[in-house]
Amino acid sequence: MQQLSRVKLPALWTRCGAPLHLTTQHSTRSQLLSPALTQGYHLFNMATRWGLCGAGKISHDFSVAMKTLPPGDHQIVAVAARSLERAREFAKKHSIPKAYGSYEELANDPEIDMVYLGVLHTEHWRLGLLVLQAGKNMLCEKPFAMNSREVGDLIAASKKFNVFLMEAIWSRCFPLHREVRRLLAEDAIGDVKLVKASFGSPQLHIPRSVEKELGGGALLDIGVYTLQFVLMVFNGERPESIHATGVLLNSGVDESMVVVMKFPRNRLACCFFSIAVTLPNDATISGTKGTIRVLGPMHCPTTLEVNGKTTQYPLPEPSLPLNFTNSTGLRYEAEEVRQCLLKGLKESPRMPLSESALLTEVMDECRKQVGVVFNQDRQ
Predict the structure, then answer these.
(1) Alpha helices (H) along the chain
(2) What is the pLDDT of residues 145-162, one digit of tens each?
């Protein structure tokens, strides 16, 4: 095929299902391009165009993090909220060109390549299906959804509409966690025998953390980070057994929980998490030849200790105040998404859909054993 000139094509080609004819000044005839090739060509020559579904605290931090990336690679072109006034206020603060007062408008915007879903996780299933059925690629905040049924629906929709989908477990994309995976792959600490992770943050004063109708509880909010770390260390293997115990708030959600998992070949993992107290918020991987320790905050880490030797992984400074710790690290998952799209992938190898499904199954089992039941479980 002849070399193509650098031209801007309609946004629709990034998600259409039919081949596209393209004529350039370097060609003497119309050339037939496959959808995968046209999307790759578009992304190589233009920024990935993001739409934000939600104008809350995490979307603010995501927008600030995006400003640490090259504008030629990433651009936020639209934001949607439940009210147009709120969307416009957010758009003005972050210099975003378009604001929508409904999520449907954003989902149907043909100039958006990727949607970041940053709403309450009780809404992930409904709005996630809206985005995917509109033919949009999506990065969905954690937890993926409220239970395995909802997660299964999202994954099935992504496959049916042939779009990219990833659960935003941002931890997986941090440079430090990439180094952890490299060390494990090279058997740097021998055979892993025990993994321990903790995350505790006093949040009893926050409504979304304690109210059942808002999907509250320690497990779905912060415990998910400890469990995903274990699954990452064990390469997405399914545990042989899960034993969970915890205490509940009067609202019926979990305040604190301890989860012990046994994996094949006599390997163990123990996770502690709580929204009532502060915990070390670190993670330790113990092997037959040494130890890897991810110092707190383990879900967005900058300090790694391997057999006593410490390495720092500093983050870029934010241009605006952040709501959450180390949030400029959200840049890493955004860049992971772009690299996946450039390669024509429909899911991320760092957080594959199969692991998101397994992670949700593990959390379902933990909730079952502790006695946390959401309305979504009865549907």
Answers:
(1) 35-45, 57-66, 84-94, 103-107, 124-133, 148-160, 175-185, 207-210, 218, 224-233, 330-342, 353-370
(2) 999 999 999 999 999 999
